[in-house]
Amino acid sequence: MTPTLYYCYDAYCGWCFGFSPVMKKIAENYPAIQIEVLSGGMILPENPVPIAATAGYIQKAYQTVEEHTGIRFGADYLWHINHPDLSDWFPHSEKPAIALCIFKEIYPEKQVAFASDLQYALHFEGRDLTDDEAYRHLLEKYSIQPELFYSRLHAEEYKEQAYYEFQLCKQLQVTGYPCVLLQNSDTRFTLLARGYTDYDTLTTRLDAALAEMNNAG
C-alpha cells in the first residue's frame, strides 16, 4: 500500500502554525508519500466565545511557540490578543475546516500548503477565519472560482465532511495538535509526532517507520 501520513491539525492551533514549515518540508522531500491533513475541531463552542476568554493564555503561549519553532506571529494577529476587549473575534474551528475540505477536493496534492496558508492568514495576517472574506485572497492564489468556493462553504455536504474529520481525529486518539501518524496497514498506525517536533527528529522516525513497512511487506 502507498504510505499515507495523517497530519492532524487545527487552523487555530499556534503550535501547528509553528509546525507548518516542518510539514511543508516533509511534503517537499517525500513526494511518494500521500499526506492527508485532518482538521481536529479544537474550538467548537456551543455558543460563540470571544477571544478575550483565551487571550491571556495566548499572550504567554505564543512567545513559547516563537522561541521553540522560530516562527513569528504577526502584529495584526497580536493586536487582537493584546486588545481582547476591543477585538470582535469569536474563534471557531468549523469554517476553516470546511474550507480545507473544499480545497482538498480540488487540489488533494496541495493540502499541506493550503493548511499552512490558512494558519498564516490567521496568525500572521490577522484575518478572522470565521469571516467568509478571510479566504478570498487564497482563492486568487490557487485560481479557485469564488462562486464555487462560497456555495460549497455554506453547503451541508462539506460541513458534514469537516465534522467527519473531527470524529476521525478522535478515533485516531488524537488529544492535542499537531499530531502526525503513518498508516502502516488498514488498521495499524505509527505515531510519529505529538506536539511540535523538529524536522530532523520527525524524518528519523518517519524513515524508521517506512523501513519497517518495507521489511514487513
Account of the protein in words:
The protein is α+β, with helices and mostly antiparallel strands and 217 residues long. The mean pLDDT is 96. The chain contains nine helices and four strands; from the N terminus they run E-H-E-H-H-H-H-H-H-H-E-E-H. A four-stranded mixed sheet has the order 2-1-3-4, sandwiched between helices. Helix 1 (14-29) packs across helix 2 (52-69), helix 1 runs antiparallel to helix 5 (111-123) and helix 2 (52-69) crosses helix 3.
- The share of residues in extended strands comes to 5-15%
Number of strands: 4
Mean pLDDT: 96
Oligomerization state: single chain
Helical element count? 9
Are there runs of 5+ residues with pLDDT below 50, and where? none
* Largest beta-sheet details: 4 strands, mixed
- The ordered H/E elements are EHEHHHHHHHEEH
Please outline what is shown here.
With 217 residues, the protein is α+β, with helices and mostly antiparallel strands. Helices cover 53% and strands 11% of the residues.
Structure characteristics:
217 residues; alpha+beta; 9 helices
Give the SSE layout.
Layout: E1 4-9, H1 14-29, E2 34-39, H2 52-69, H3 75-82, H4 94-106, H5 111-123, H6 136-141, H7 146-153, H8 156-171, E3 179-183, E4 189-194, H9 199-216
Parallel strand pairs: 1-2
Antiparallel strand pairs: 1-3, 3-4
Helix pairs in contact: 1-2, 1-5, 2-3, 4-5, 4-8
